[in-house]
Amino acid sequence: MKVSCRLYVEVTEAEDLLALDFDALPQPLFVMGGGSNLLFTGDFPGTVLHLGNVSCHSERSEESVRITLGSGVVFDDFCAWAAAEGLWGPENLSLIPGEVGASAVQNIGAYGVEAKDIIDTVHAFDRQERRFVDIPGADCGYGYRTSNFKTIWKGRYIVTAVTFRLCVIPRPVLDYGGVRKALIDRGEGVSLPISGHPRPDKREGPAGVTGGRGRSEAEAIGEGIPFPLTPQLIRETIIGVREQKLPDPEEIGSAGSFFCNPVIDREHFGRIVAIAKAENGPEYNVPHYEVGERIKVPAAWMIDQCGFKGMRLGGAQVYPKQPLVIVNATGSATPEEIIALERRVIGTIKEKYGIELHPEVEHV
Ligand code: EPU
Predict the structure, then answer these.
(1) How confident is the model over 102-139, as pLDDT tens digits?
(2) Which distant-in-sequence residues (6+ apart) come within 8 Å of 157 by Cβ?
(3) Dihedral of CA 285/291/295/299: which sign?
(4) Strand-pair category, 119-126 with 131-136
(5) Going by CA atoms, what residue is nearest to atom 11 of ligand 1?
(6) Which domains, and CATH codes, for the chain?
(7) Do 163 and 130 form a contact (C-beta atoms < 8 A)?
(8) Pocket test for ligand 1, best of 235, 296, 324 (most atoms within 8 A of CB)
(9) Are 303 and 309 within 8 A, CB to CB?
(10) Digit-coded pLDDT (tens) for 256-272
């Protein structure tokens, strides 16, 4: 189903924000990136503003590259460029839909890497002071899919560009979501000597100035992988993994992960383990990740355990291959159908596990 907004404003030069009379625009104002993580619940009565500036400027030193990209640059174009240049940093974020500006607001993440890990500075227009500001990434209050831009600064700043810090020194992140296994599987039938990965020698390769790991450590991480590790190889592998389980936005509408993965205390996790073992047998292991003292439980697992995979409500469907995603299966699902399915999932999980799932998708 199509929805419309009262006014759509496209700004292609950040400086034009200075000339924009915000008070004269139909309210409310909503700043949109690529729109890939949004659910419009109906016609929007105000103004949708999109920053379409695609400027690009980079500075290269011996060990790192700082690249400043306009908010409208497609994030995956940046990932593709970095991989082709042999630069480390965003390769695990390959194929995430959306644009650069939103990546800094949402702190997008996948396969053990988050945007915050490579964000140096966020450039923004301060609507309150009517001036441009440079905010260090460390001051943006980054957390799991959140930042100050979504919370205490909401409505104040419009992100115009982001400076990312990329590493020349290898810094592969492989131990999350089956990336290592997928890399090893790619090598099946390949009879390459593993000479690209000598034993780690801590004396070689100092840690990179930008937080990268020394070369020898990177090689230790790559142990057992039958190819020399390159950002391009990791990018292609991640694309393969994503394509297997996530819907292609060109073919079937979705907003990516519909829910955030909840983080709970150990006692609560113990209760979930007990429920899972009672249902699946005493040997059953509940997938989880340690987050400090707390435990992150995959929402996909809970939704799967509740039998929601493939469930349809009108045109809305829990995606069969990755139940964390709700898709517009018919292309004509209404916002009401998607919200009804969302509520059913939330209600069932709350009842069974005592956990209230929160949507990752922003409802507008
Ligand atoms: N699982 C099941 N059944 C299924 C699918 C998954 O039990 O049908 C369990 C498995 O144990 C699996 C676990 O759920 O190991 C977690 O699944 P996975 O790692 O595939 O994804 P996720 O943790 O649910 C997060 C991000 C994704 C990101 C992947 C990969 C969130 C909300 N989502 O999903 O991000 O691509 O990790 O790192 O954190 C997005 O934000 O749009 C997005 C796709």
Answers:
(1) 999 999 999 999 999 999 999 999 999 999 999 999 99
(2) 124, 125, 126, 127, 133, 135, 149
(3) negative
(4) antiparallel
(5) 287
(6) 1-245 (3.30.465.10), 253-363 (3.90.78.10)
(7) no
(8) 324
(9) yes
(10) 899 999 999 999 999 99
